[in-house]
Specification:
Layout (H helix, E strand, L loop, with lengths): L4 H17 L5 E2 H4 L4 H4 L2 E9 L6 E6 L29 H6 L7 H13 L3 H14 L4 H12 L12 E3 L3
Parallel strand pairs: 2-4
Antiparallel strand pairs: 1-3, 2-3
Helix pairs in contact: 5-6, 6-7
Length: 169
């Protein structure tokens, strides 16, 4: 159950953010920090956002799923039949298969684009994002950031804090 009302609010906001970012999965940096490095390799940051009720900016991530098999992640049990085997993100091919068809360089390209955007290097971010859209056309998070930059005539404001303030999120 929820420990605090704020935790519940943040989870509802992440779920609602799916429409804003155009992805089915939004994950906060707090959850990402709890994941193993092999699990994190499948994720990419979409933006760093400041939302009402949260005192610090939150980096939001997604997991690009291109294929979702019917029997995905069926529990594997130890020989005793009682103990579930831990998920092995590093060696279990079913996790990599979720991203089968994703351009091999896309995750790194998208990560670099967001890093440049957050650092205020918008010209470089725009170039990288344009390349990312060749690798994965119509990517919601990339199109969203391009829209933000376009609204600012492609020039990072001098007072850009390194995150996006999201009213109504």
């Amino acid at each position: 159950m929820w420990r605090t009302t704020n935790e519940k609010l943040h989870c509802h906001r992440l779920e609602a953010g799916s429409k804003i970012f155009g992805v089915p999965i939004n994950i906060s940096h707090w959850l990402v920090a709890l994941l193993s490095p092999p699990a994190r390799k499948f994720l990419r940051p979409m933006d760093k956002i400041m939302v009402e009720g949260c005192p610090v900016p939150m980096t939001v991530y997604t997991f690009d799923v291109l294929q979702f098999p019917v029997n995905f992640c069926t529990a594997v049990m130890e020989e005793d039949g009682e103990t579930q085997v831990a998920v092995d993100f590093e060696n279990d091919p079913q996790f990599a298969n979720l991203q089968k068809g994703l351009h091999p360089a896309f995750l790194d390209t998208a990560r670099n684009a967001v890093e440049c955007y957050l650092a205020g290097e918008w010209e470089e971010a725009r170039n990288i994002m344009t390349h990312a859209l060749i690798q994965k056309p119509q990517d919601g998070p990339i199109l969203r950031l391009l829209g933000i930059m376009q609204d600012q005539q492609w020039t990072c404001p001098p007072d850009f804090p390194g995150y996006t303030v999201m009213d109504g999120y």
